[in-house]
Hints:
Blueprint: E1 2-9, H1 13-24, E2 31-35, H2 66-71, E3 74-78, E4 82-86, E5 91-94, E6 99-107, E7 111-113, E8 126-127, H3 132-141, E9 147-151, H4 155-166, E10 170-174, H5 187-199, E11 203-205, E12 210-216, E13 219-225, E14 230-232, E15 235-238, E16 242-244, H6 247-251, E17 256-257, E18 259-261, E19 273-275, E20 280-283, E21 291-292, H7 297-311, E22 323-328, E23 331-337, E24 344-350, E25 355-362, E26 365-372, H8 375-387, E27 389-390, H9 393-397, E28 409-410
Parallel strand pairs: 1-2, 1-6, 2-3, 6-19, 8-15, 9-10, 9-15, 10-11, 18-20
Antiparallel strand pairs: 4-5, 5-6, 7-16, 12-13, 13-14, 17-18, 20-21, 22-23, 23-26, 24-25, 25-26, 27-28
Amino acid sequence: MQQYDVVIVGAGHGGAQTAIALRQAKFAGSILLIGDEPDPPYERPPLSKEYLAGEKSFERILIRPESFWRDRAIVTALGHAVTTVDAAAHRVTTAVGCSIGYGTLVWATGGSPRRLDCAGHDLAGVHTVRNRADADRMMAELDGVRDAVVIGGGYIGLEAAAVLTKFGKQVVLLEAQDRVLARVAGEALSRFYENEHRAHGVDVRLNVAVDCIVGMNGRVAAVRLADGAEIAADLVIVGIGIVPAVAPLLAAGADGGNGVAVDAACRTSLPDVFAIGDCALHANDFADGATIRLESVQNANDQANVVAHAIVGAPASYHAVPWFWSNQYDLKLQTVGLSTGFDQTVLRGDPPARSFSVVYLKRGRVVALDCVNAVKDYVQGRKLVEGGAVITPAALADAAVPLKDLAWEGA
Length: 411
C-alpha cells in the first residue's frame, strides 16, 4: 500500500490550492493529489465562458504549468476516482482497487452536475458544463447546431446562452422560476439580464417546466414542455446546479447530508480529514452564521489556505468575504457578499447605461453588492460588506459620490 503524509482528493481549485499552499508554507512531507479527470488542475469558470467560446486554449486555463507539480514534489494521480474511505485505517481506495494510506486527508471533490430526471435526459446532444470533457463535447458538435435550448437561468445557463448566441445559434433559455438568477440576486439584476439576453436574440421563457427530451435516432430533436409545446433542439445544455460529491465520506461516517459538515478550520467529524470547496457544509459569517455550501473559486481557495495552515501547525479559521463574477456579452458582473435574506435593495447608477450596482441591505446594514461594469463599486463595496456598514439608502444611491467617501458605522 502506498503511503503519503497528505492525500488530497480532488484536483480542482481547492485541491490544487491546498497543495500549493502547503509547499508555500514549507511543508516538507509527501503530498498526493488525486483527480478523477485525466487533465492536470485547471480553472473551471472559463469552461462556460472563454474556453467554450474558443477565446482561451486549455493551456491558458491551467492553474499551474504541468512542470510545477513535479518541481515541488507534488505527486499527481490523474484519471482516478476515490470510491471508499476507511477513516479508522487512514486509507482510501480508488475505483481500480488501489489502496492509499494517509496521515491527513483533504476532500476537495466539488460536485457533479445535477441532471434532468425526465425521459430523454441521456440522449446524445444533451450536455452539462462541469469539466473540460463536457465543454469539448459541446464544441465538437457546434458546427451542426442551429437550434439550442438551455435549461436553467443561473450563471452557467446564462453564460452558455451568451456564447451560443455569439456563434449565431438560435437559443431558447428555459427557467422554472419567474425570473433568472432567482436564487442568487434581486429582481432588478434579474430583469436587467433577461432584457440583455432578449436584446441579443435569446428567447427567454420563464415559469416553464420541462416534461421530457424528445429524441430521433438516439439524438435530441426537441424539448417538450409541461404544457405540451415542443421546442426544436439540436443541442441542449442543462445548468440546474450540482450534487456535492461526498458519498464516500458520508459512508465512512462523516456528518453531513447536502455536503459534508466542517468546522471553522474545515475539519470534518472524521479524524484527520478536512473538506473544502463546493462540497463543504460550513457556518458562514456572511450568511449570519447559517450553514451553507458556497460554490465559488474564492471559497475553495480560501478554505484550502485554512487547511494548509492547520496541517503545518498554524491553525486559522475560515472568515472570508464571498465574491463571484460572471462574463456575459460585454457585461462584467462582480458580486461581493451574500444577498440571501436581504430586506431592501438600493439601485446605484443607471441600468440603461449598462453600468450600475445593486446594493443589498439586511436590517439596515450592507450585506452584498452586485456590480455590472462598475469595478470601483465592487472594490470599494467590499469594505462595506466586511464591516456590516450602516448607510442611508439615499447616500448609497448617489452614484456621484464614491462608496469609499461615504461615512458609515458598523452594524
